[in-house]
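To illustrate the input format used throughout this study, we show a single complete record. The first block contains the structure-token representation of the backbone; no residue identities are included at this stage. The design step must infer an amino acid for every position from geometry alone.
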């Protein structure tokens, strides 16, 4: 018999930040085990449920008994089992005894190589009850959790204490014990709104009964969607701020409630004199409230709270949350007022007491390096070097403020506000905030070249310093965020089209450290590390692997030219001549690798065949045009001009033997091909393209 299977584990409040993942992993582990045991169809889809006080999974069409299985146990080959007279050998007799049968009850099967004796029997399927408790227990042990806890007077362990177990197959309870609990068909609804204990009539009725009688929305996905809809309605035309419906806060509040109801509250407009980032972060982190913005992006003195209680008179809930928020915002206002009493410049000397890394010195020593590097970069970009120097001097000072101590996420953001309060130039203040950009993958880039100079200096110093003392990323471990820093540098150079040489930047950053602190090869090592990160990033952006390999070579250093070159390669591939030129280029590279010939310039006096003369003349005619186009970064047109060489290249390979016996002719023809390869690969190594 097939029926829907429901498993529910009722617990105390589960960790909210991992609740959705716990529900999904639990459902996946149970479903995979049941499929492996033959109770579920391989295509069966498990439906996960997760609330603060329960994990559950429902799977349709589960058998109450495994199908019967044919068991085949292979023994010795026929050649080894029978002697020359056809009598059974000791090997065959021993195999029959181990199977508990006579020799004439053994079958003969072919194992793909030879004919073997085998014992065949039908194993009856076992009932679901014989396996389900073990399946659930193993699935629970696989759940990702930092630590488990004990409760009561036994040794049972789980993420949180458990209070109930449902294992229901259709309308029948599947007997079993998990974590010391005996299975049944009774659960509980909402702690305050529900009807107490609920008897589940059928596994298919789980969601409906919990919702109707228990005031519980069991599905994490449906509960999240319901909260998002209520938030939009309660916003009454305002916008949900960052930290609202589009980020992790929505997932977190979904994991905190079983029956969500959104209420709107207010706070005093006097708090709006505090930077809105502080107020929004305080609402989000401390209280899990949703801030609201007007059409201009300014914070409104309103907020939304997701409650776990539905009532016709929510005034006490709203006023209670307003009272708590008032205290939190008062703390933020106090930090802001106190921090402004000490200018950022006065905080800088105190950075000498803050360790950046025990092998790399203090933050004050780091600031000294950042000032030199940022000033040098600003000079190359034509930015105001004095502004870059001042921003680099002040960029870490807000680490010592009370606000950043309370909210580390606001480092840089608060530095900008405090710099403006101190009368610093807007460009300096913006650069202080922007030097952390991009803060995450896909995050905003600096607003200008002053900010870019300080941001590049900050990330390059971290990359070279941390990498240089041997703390390289390994697997999924990257405690210093070097992959994020590398991607940030690459995005700034590429997307802001900054005309800077990456290898030179790394060498420059290396030069500002003491000579005996870092490894000698650190600049080259970081360069290679960053190019690998660039390849990964470009693959994520949708570029083909062979296109990336053609453009991103080991010597690449001008990242600002990568995207235009990739775009040009894509256009080149669409040309009818592209495939033939790619094949020819591969042939050229293979010939040059095998020949080991000296790199002499081709001599037209040694050219005998008309095809090689024609190729030489066409190449010389096009080479200056290609060089000029590449110099002006018109890569698409450069590759288009190269397509004009196809006929001469085809004729050359059809009519000319390169590897002739006469050494001068052979060397000259190889020199011609080497020169042709150089011209053809000025934009990208097109031999790496898949023809």
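Output of the design step:
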């Amino acid at each position: 018999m097939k029926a829907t299977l429901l498993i529910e584990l009722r617990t105390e409040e589960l960790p909210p930040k991992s609740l959705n993942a716990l529900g999904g992993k639990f459902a996946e582990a149970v479903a995979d085990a049941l499929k492996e045991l033959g109770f579920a169809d391989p295509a069966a889809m498990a439906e996960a449920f997760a609330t603060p006080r329960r994990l559950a999974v429902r799977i349709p069409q589960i058998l109450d008994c495994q199908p019967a299985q044919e068991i085949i146990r292979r023994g010795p080959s026929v050649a080894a089992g029978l002697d020359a007279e056809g009598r059974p050998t000791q090997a065959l007799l021993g195999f029959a005894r181990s199977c508990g049968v006579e020799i004439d009850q053994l079958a003969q099967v072919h194992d793909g190589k030879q004919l073997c004796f085998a014992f065949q029997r039908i194993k009856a399927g076992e009932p679901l009850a014989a396996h389900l408790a073990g399946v659930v227990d193993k699935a629970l042990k696989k759940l990702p959790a930092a630590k488990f806890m004990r409760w009561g007077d036994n040794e049972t362990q789980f993420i949180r204490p458990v209070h109930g177990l449902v294992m229901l197959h259709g309308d029948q309870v599947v007997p079993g014990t998990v974590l010391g609990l005996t299975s049944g068909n009774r659960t509980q609804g909402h702690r305050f709104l529900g009807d107490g204990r609920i008897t589940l009539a059928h596994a298919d009725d789980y969601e409906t009964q919990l919702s109707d009688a228990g005031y519980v929305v069991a599905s994490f996905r449906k509960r999240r969607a319901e909260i998002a809809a209520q938030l939009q309605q309660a916003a009454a035309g305002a916008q949900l701020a960052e930290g609202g419906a589009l980020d992790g806060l929505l997932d977190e509040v979904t994991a905190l409630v079983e029956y969500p109801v959104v209420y709107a509250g207010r706070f005093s407009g006097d708090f709006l004199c505090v930077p809105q980032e502080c107020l929004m972060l305080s609402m989000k982190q401390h209280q899990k409230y949703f801030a609201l913005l007007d059409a201009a992006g300014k914070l409104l003195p309103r907020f939304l709270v997701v409650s776990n209680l539905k009532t016709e008179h929510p005034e006490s809930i709203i006023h209670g949350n307003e009272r708590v928020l008032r205290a939190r915002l008062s703390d933020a206002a106090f930090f802001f007022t106190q921090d402004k009493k000490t200018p950022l410049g006065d905080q800088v000397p105190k950075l000498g007491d803050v360790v950046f890394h025990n092998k790399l010195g203090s933050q004050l020593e780091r600031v000294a390096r950042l000032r030199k590097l940022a000033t040098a970069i600003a000079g190359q970009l034509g930015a105001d070097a004095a502004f870059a120097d001042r921003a680099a001097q002040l960029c870490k000072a807000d680490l010592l403020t009370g606000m950043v101590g309370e909210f580390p996420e606001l480092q840089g953001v608060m530095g900008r506000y405090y710099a403006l309060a101190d009368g610093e130039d807007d460009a300096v203040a913006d650069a202080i905030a922007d030097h952390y950009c991009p803060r995450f993958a896909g995050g905003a880039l600096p607003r200008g070249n002053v900010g870019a100079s300080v941001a590049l200096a900050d990330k390059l110093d971290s990359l070279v310093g941390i990498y240089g003392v041997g703390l390289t990323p390994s697997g999924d471990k990257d405690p210093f965020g070097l992959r994020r820093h590398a991607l940030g540098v690459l995005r700034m150079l590429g997307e802001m089209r900054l005309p800077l040489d990456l290898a030179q930047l790394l060498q420059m950053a290396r030069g500002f450290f003491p000579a005996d602190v870092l490894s000698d090869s650190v600049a080259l090592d970081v360069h290679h590390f960053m190019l690998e990160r660039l390849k990964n990033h470009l693959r994520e952006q949708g570029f083909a692997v062979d296109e990336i390999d053609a453009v991103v070579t080991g010597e690449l250093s001008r990242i600002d030219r990568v995207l235009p070159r990739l775009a040009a390669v894509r256009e080149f591939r669409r040309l009818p001549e592209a495939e033939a030129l790619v094949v020819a280029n591969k042939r050229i590279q293979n010939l040059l690798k095998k020949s080991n010939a000296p790199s002499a310039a081709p001599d037209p006096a040694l050219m005998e065949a008309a095809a090689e003369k024609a190729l030489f003349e066409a190449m010389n005619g096009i080479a200056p045009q290609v060089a000029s186009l590449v110099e002006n970064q018109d890569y698409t047109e450069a590759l288009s001009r190269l397509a004009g060489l196809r006929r001469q290249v085809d004729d050359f390979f059809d009519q000319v033997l390169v590897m002739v016996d006469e050494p001068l002719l052979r060397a000259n023809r190889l020199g011609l091909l080497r020169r042709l390869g150089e011209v053809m690969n000025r934009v990208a190594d097109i031999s790496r393209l898949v023809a």
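Structural context for interpreting the output: Residues 222-339 form one domain. The chain has a mean pLDDT of 93.
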